[in-house]
TrEMBL record:
Keywords: Cell outer membrane, Membrane, Signal. One of its GO terms (cellular component) is cell outer membrane. Residues 21-205 form the SusD-like N-terminal domain. Its main location: membrane. Residues 312-588 form the RagB/SusD domain. This is RagB/SusD family nutrient uptake outer membrane protein. Belongs to the SusD family.
């Protein structure tokens, strides 16, 4: 009885104080003011934005004519075959972007009050750098929102997304209408201007005060203070060169056929000039990195990276992953103990020209359908495993035909190829997935490559000034494409007569540039967006090839099911239901 009374007493005491138990102690409540005294907490608002950046390799190639996947439940496969809707959109970046933008807004509204260091000069520099990062990341997220969700409304307006440029509390009215496409562009450019004003082009240590960039000299004349904030320890954070790259990406998107409208002021000349600034910084056309086309397998270069340095091909990358073999485990053929996830199409294989530069269907081509891989563009063997290719640590031959004696053959297993091809690009051949002897290697994931910027210039310059026009620059679209093809080993033995043929014809040069972009950036999640911004056909059936000895049998692999309105992505259906001020893009109602 005494025990029962004791327990009742405890319960009564508990109930009488439950209100206090359910209320968090004041020291556990984090608010904006705490940013002012806790620099780690404050910096976390920006760090959160880095963590949510949309992935560079998101496998959207599975939804194009470049690749299919053997993973039948894959969201991009389902999207490409008819299940894409405003309620089922694997390409939506809406929720993650707006959530992240609120963190950035709150940081920008409070950063002036933060004491970043005891040294006042260091505090001023830290505030500049982190504000620059925040503005740059805000532009980045707005770019992805615009790319993924902008479009034409049923009444013909070209709209972007709602512009939210300040922190909104939970009690705020979120029923904000979409801004015009042009207003979204202005917001992106404004934030990129701020990022470039606050950030160095690249984060590098300096040896003396005379090397401090002019815009920082009013804050410090101390090289060590500058290095502490803007030096090598900050590498791979958002910098001025990344801001210039997103300016080029934004301008290229806006100048493209899909977004032509009287309300959109961006021209091809704008896009060419934005990309040219990066090429000039790099050192011109001749500075195109010589080994950039095999960046993923430049073994000594990758293994030698330290101090956050970039390889010559990279403008921005993710951190090094040490001893990693995840990508190989996903994409190696079954005989190399991989899942064969990414299957290149015959469509893509046919896009690789002959080594002399002629497309395989050109009248002057030496292409032999009975020996289709002979004499081809070297990039074909760099990027794709075809029947008889060698791969892996033992340089084993891979046989992909349906009569293959191995599981690499067409449709042998759930992990076998559906097209007769496996992806090679992005994989290190010195990774071993053999059970009991698994060996990973160092790798990084790109975010922006110089080659992308060179190709962007070529496309925009050709549209603005023709194949050989230069605008105010010293190089043309022709010059860039020649450098890219020479680097690849295309047309080097005969002065590339097909390129010379295209040199005199803007339309032919356009097709060549688009094809070079397709090849150079294959499997890097560009093709889906390029087809849409060019307003080219999305419904080309994915094809394969069954190779058995000397028998080559074309196969139909996957029929694409897209409608015309799908050149523009939808506003999420859930947002349309919640907010009556949001107008859906045409066709997604």
């Amino acid at each position: 009885m005494k025990t029962k009374l004791f327990m009742i007493g405890i319960i009564a005491a508990t109930l009488s104080s439950c209100e206090k138990w359910l209320e968090p102690d004041p020291e556990n409540i984090r608010n904006a003011e705490q940013m002012h005294v806790d620099t780690h907490f404050a910096q976390g608002f920006v760090t959160t934005a880095y963590r949510a950046i949309p992935g560079y390799y998101n496998n959207s190639d599975f939804a194009t004519d470049d690749a299919v996947t053997n993973q039948r439940t894959n969201s991009f496969l389902q999207m490409a075959t008819g299940s894409w809707s405003a309620a089922n959109n694997p390409l939506s970046v809406w929720n993650q972007s707006y959530a992240t933008l609120l963190y950035l807004h709150q940081f920008l509204e409070n950063s002036h009050e933060i004491k970043w260091a005891e040294d006042e000069e260091a505090t001023a520099l830290f505030n500049m750098r982190l504000r620059g990062e925040a503005y740059g990341l805000r532009a980045l997220y707005m770019y992805f929102l615009l790319r993924n969700h902008a479009g034409f409304t049923p009444d013909g307006q070209l709209l972007g997304v709602p512009i939210v440029s300040e922190f909104l509390p939970a009690t705020a009215d979120f029923n904000t209408p979409r801004a015009t496409f042009a207003a979204c562009l202005d917001q992106i450019y404004h934030d990129l201007d701020s990022a470039e004003r606050f950030l160095p082009l690249e984060y590098d240590d300096i040896s003396n005060a005379s090397q401090i960039p002019e815009r920082f000299t009013s804050i410090t004349q101390n090289a060590s203070t500058y290095n502490r904030v803007m030096g090598r320890y900050s590498r791979q954070l958002f910098n001025g060169l990344i801001a210039k790259s997103f300016r080029a990406r934004t301008a290229l998107l806006a100048a493209s056929p899909a977004f032509q409208h009287s309300s959109n002021p961006v021209t091809w000349e704008d896009a060419a000039n934005a990309a040219a600034a990066i090429i000039q910084y790099k050192g011109g056309v001749d500075a195109l990195p010589a080994n950039g086309l095999t960046f993923y397998n430049n073994v000594n270069e990758i293994d030698g990276l330290s101090d956050g340095n970039n390889p010559p091909e990279m403008i921005w990358r993710e951190n090094i992953q040490a001893n990693n073999g995840d990508r190989e485990a996903q994409n190696f053929p079954p005989s190399l103990y991989g899942e064969g996830l990414t299957n290149p199409t015959q469509n893509l294989v046919d896009a690789f020209p002959m080594a002399d530069g002629y497309p395989i269907d050109h009248p002057n081509s030496t292409y032999n359908a009975d020996n289709p891989y002979s004499g081809r563009d070297p990039r074909l063997s760099y990027y794709i495993i075809y029947n008889g290719s060698t791969a892996g640590v033992t340089n084993a031959a891979i046989y992909t035909g349906s009569a293959s004696a191995t599981d690499d053959g067409l449709n042998k297993l759930a992990t076998s190829t559906r097209t007769g091809y496996y992806m090679k690009k992005g994989l290190r051949m010195d990774v071993n997935r053999t059970p009991g002897n698994i060996v990973g290697r160092n790798r990084y994931t790109p975010r922006i490559r110089y080659t992308e910027m060179y190709l962007s210039y070529a496309e925009a310059a050709n549209e603005a000034w023709g194949p050989t026009g230069t605008g105010t620059h010293s190089f043309s679209a022709y010059d860039v494409i020649k450098a890219i093809r020479q680097r690849a080993g295309v047309g080097t033995s005969n002065n590339d007569p097909y390129l010379e043929e295209c040199k005199a014809d803007k339309e032919k040069m356009r097709e060549l540039i688009r094809n070079e972009r397709r090849l150079e950036l294959c499997f890097e999640s560009f093709r889906f967006w390029d087809l849409r911004r060019w307003k080219l056909g999305l419904t080309e059936t994915a094809r394969g090839l069954d190779v058995n000895g000397t028998n080559y049998t074309p196969t139909t692999v996957e029929v694409r099911s897209y409608q015309n309105h799908m050149y523009y992505g939808p506003i999420p259906f859930s947002e349309i239901l919640k907010y009556n001020n949001l107008v859906q893009n045409a066709g997604w109602e």
